[in-house]
Fold this protein.
Amino acid sequence: MGLLSTILRLGRIAEPAAAPPVRSHVDVGSRTSLHVRHVDAGSCNGCEVELSGCFSPVYDAEQYGIRLVASPRHADALLVTGVVTRNLSDALLATVEATPRPRAVVAVGDCACDGGGLLGAYGVLGPVRAVVAPDVEIPGCPPHPSAIIAALRSVTGR
Amino acid sequence: MTLSGAAGAVVQVAAVAAGSPMLVGWMRQVRARLEGRAGAGALQPYRELRKLAGKQDVTPEGTTAVFSLAPALVAGVMLVCAAVVPTVTVASPLDSIADLFVVVGLLLVATVALVLAALDTGTPFGGIGASRETTIAALVEPAILVAVYSLSIRASSSNLAAIVRATERRPGDVLTPAGALAFAALVVVIVAETGRLPVDNPATHLELTMVHEAMVLEYSGSRLAILEWAAAMRLAVLVGLLANLYLPAGVAGPRSGPVGIVLGVLAIAAKVAVLAGALAAAEVFVAKLRLFRVPELLAGSYLLGLLAVTAAYFLGPRRA
């Protein structure tokens, strides 16, 4: 039983929880639970690697009530990564419309926040705000998992 | 029917309805701890349900009443199941319909309602989920019937309360080859019926691997809350039934007073917590089966059930 001995040896991997952040003005209808749907609007997948790190045992976003869900209809917040490309702008708008209110749009990474130097390319429409106004912006190329989690925690205050 | 039985049934429905989200939270917490994570706490499903209840209900374009009525129907069926299946008391006033076939039929009504609702959305993933759920349900129902039938032989009744009472009188009777085979068959069937690993992964985000999740992708707000609650009740009822079929100790009877009923609630809560914790711990060690391997697993469960019936006839304890 290699897995069992690994479980017993490692015990708790998650780092101790930081103090709860100041709650921002963004309201998603809950202070204890935040379900997020990830939307890749044209990312290089650097932000995705950091996002998957957020839900790993080390950072364990679930302990703050943050969970990834499979459908925008189940979500409270959309995590948009990458510059918005022309091909995905309609899809991004439709996803926002499919998310029940009250909802939040979170721009993850420099590309989503301000274009990240890719503005002006022929396939690029612009940063997230060119399509929908983001409620939270997380800068960084890519942002650190702890920065992503801190920003998401500020939405619920948990 | 006795007053105590009626009170027990009311408490039983309330306990399943109120306690089932905690069961889901408990199983998630066990998994989180074994994976080295801290987890959100066993009460997190209540917070999620409260949040969903206050959300906007987005109704997808082109859906009909089938889509909007399914959650209420599924939850209603699960409440009837909670009243019928002997978890807290064996003296429910609905005892006369608490038949094995009725319960399996009720579970199937809920499954069919959800399948039709998934088809009603007209999305590809709804259709995929519906077809998979139908395939699994068609294989699960005979297996669950055969497995519980093998337990009903020594009680000479297919009434679930009568089976639980027979085990209560002679607890040693389940420690037979038939009992062990039926237990293995029932565990596989309950895992499949409640959509847990290795048949379905409740935590998946990949639409192509989903079964239950794919059917509820289009639901939001309070309807999604009702469906999640109903799924939790299905899990609680089935795990509670398995626990009481094999270890009925503490279950309230027709003469139990308020203390007996409270003890019944505590007993079933403890049994379900242990059994569900073991299921969640086992999930850490298994991966999801390929969809085309699932029928083999369920056919194996049916075979175990069939062997249990044979063993119950040929190796069962002799009764004068």
Summary: The two ends of chain B are 29 Å apart (CA to CA).
